[in-house]
Amino acid sequence: MAAITAAMVKELRERTGLGMMECKKALVESEGDVDAAIENMRKSSGLKAAKKAGRTAAEGVALVKVSDDNTRAFILEVNSETDFVARDDNFLDFVREVLDTAFANDETDVAKLMAGDLESKREALVQKIGENVTVRRVVKVEGAVVDGYVHSNNKIAAVVALTAGDSEVARDIAMHVAAVNPRVARGEDMPQDEVEQEKDIIRAQPDMAGKPAEIVEKMMAGRIGKFLKENSLVDQPFVKNPEQTVGALVKSNGGELSSFVRIEVGEGIERETVDFAAEVAAAAGSSKS
Fold first, then answer.
1. How far apart are CA 125 and CA 143, in angstroms?
2. Which long-range contacts (CB under 8 A, 24 or more apart) does 242-248 make?
3. Residue 218 belongs to domain spanning
């Protein structure tokens, strides 16, 4: 019998979406034959999960849990394939359990978080609802004053930490972060490669053509300054009072911005594009054969 290696287990997990122990057991039973293990799984209770795991899970929800003393918060994203499932009570109950467990165990490592009972519950949920479910990321935010905000559709969640002040202010700023989506806390936090990319864009603009280098640099400085202010949280006009910047709001309440986190469901996931006409044609063709 072939030795069951970690690489074999990993391959089977990636191809089926099932748990590590279930994959290892299947490989033992198939004597290390990955394809045979998949075939056996398709004949067993793992059929639905194995068929669905390859689909892109880019919908879902993002939720926040804040400590009673407002010094710690966890923000979690769990994905599903469709928005319909993201609104299902079984799915939402699972997400809340994952978030509560992460909070209770102070755990942000998804693999460690899901080891054991939660992974089994995820697999059972996949079986029940017929869609792939992925616990994508967990982020912890700590500070003197912490609060969060979740948009009403659970698609965007944000957490803000302040050095001092009122938790209601932190929550209001988290709402601003969810709505406006600042790229950095302060202008100096903007990655240099993004600044250089913006400079290239500015140089290529029509009104820069034919101008002396010193004029170009002067115009460049002004436009880069505007770019940084527009994308820096502390410099943005506060959504509830555009006459005041977020930074000024925080200072008026005796604090400074420490950090913020914003999660939007599905961001960065390459979604599958489905050609329904081609699918129908293919189905029609196969039905005739």
1. 35
2. 246/173, 246/176
3. 192-229
Residue 253 included in any domain: yes
Contact partners, residue 88, CB within 8 Å, separation at least 6 = 129
Q: What is the pLDDT of residue 286?
A: 45
Which tens digit of pLDDT belongs to each residue from 174-204? Answer: 999 999 999 999 999 999 999 998 888 888 8
Q: Give the residue from 203, 229, 255 where a domain finishes.
A: 229
Strand pairing class (241-245; 156-162): unpaired
> CA-to-CA distance for 238 and 173, rounded, in angstroms?
8
* Rounded to 5°, angle at Cα 259 from 258 and 263: 165
Could you give the CA distance from residue 245 to residue 251 in angstroms, rounded to a whole number? 10
Confidence at 42, pLDDT banded by 50, 70, 90: low
Is 100 found in the same domain as 64? yes
The burial of 22, by beta-carbon neighbours within 10 Å (0-12 exposed, 13-18 middle, 19 or more buried), is given as buried
Q: Are residues 145 and 204 in the same domain?
A: no
Residue 284: inside a domain, yes or no? no
Averaged confidence pLDDT in the chain: 87
Q: Would 269 be classed as within a structural domain?
A: no
Domain annotation covers residue 276 = no
Bridge-based pairing of strands 134-142 and 72-80 is antiparallel
pLDDT above 60: residue 134:
yes
pLDDT digits (tens, 9 = 90+) for 221-268: 999 999 999 999 999 999 999 999 999 999 999 999 999 999 999 888
